Automatic annotation (TrEMBL):
Domain HTH marR-type: 10-142
GO MF, any single term: DNA binding
Protein name stated in the entry: Homoprotocatechuate degradative operon repressor
A Pfam family: MarR
Species, as recorded: Vibrio maritimus
Keywords assigned: DNA-binding, Transcription, Transcription regulation
GO BP of this protein: negative regulation of DNA-templated transcription; response to stress
Highest rank taxon of the organism: Bacteria
Length: 145
């Protein structure tokens, strides 16, 4: 028996995820914009704040930013004094990136403001539903492996 599934474009999971991301980012964009940061710059800084110094390839994977785009973001962050790059002693093709003290101070200053936005987002849909959504998304992500 052949099953014919026709999904309306409004019910397309990728489209729903993009729309949900845009709604979620409405909470965080004002905080970032008021500090002259792009979403991608903040994402890179958060990964580095969490992971510490890491290589470029790992940073690309962890931040979900493709290498060509990440190169530009890292260069801009470096010009702003937020990150430093260093070449691997054993492999000159490999670079490591870490936050500067200036960036660590900024992340520390922004952390409470970002946390307030998470609280507001959770209030919008409810703590339980937020957790449920997060768990479902993590299950989907984990299913790749």
């Amino acid at each position: 028996m052949k099953v014919n599934l026709v999904t309306k474009y409004e019910d397309s999971l990728p489209l729903q995820l993009i729309r949900a991301r845009d709604i979620a980012m409405e909470y965080f964009r004002p905080v970032l914009a008021s500090n002259d940061l792009t979403e991608q710059q903040w994402r890179v800084m958060r990964v580095l704040d969490t992971k510490g110094e890491i290589d470029f390839t790992t940073l690309s994977r962890e931040s979900c930013i493709l290498s060509p785009s990440l190169t530009g973001i890292i260069n801009r962050l470096e010009k702003l004094g937020y990150v430093e790059k260093k070449k691997c002693e054993h492999d000159g093709r490999k670079s490591y990136i870490h936050l500067t003290a200036k960036a660590e101070s900024l992340v520390e200053r922004l952390r409470p403001q970002i946390e307030e936005q998470y609280v507001a987002l959770k209030e919008r849909i409810g703590e339980d539903r937020y957790s449920e959504l997060s768990n479902l998304l993590n299950e989907l992500i984990a299913s790749k492996h």
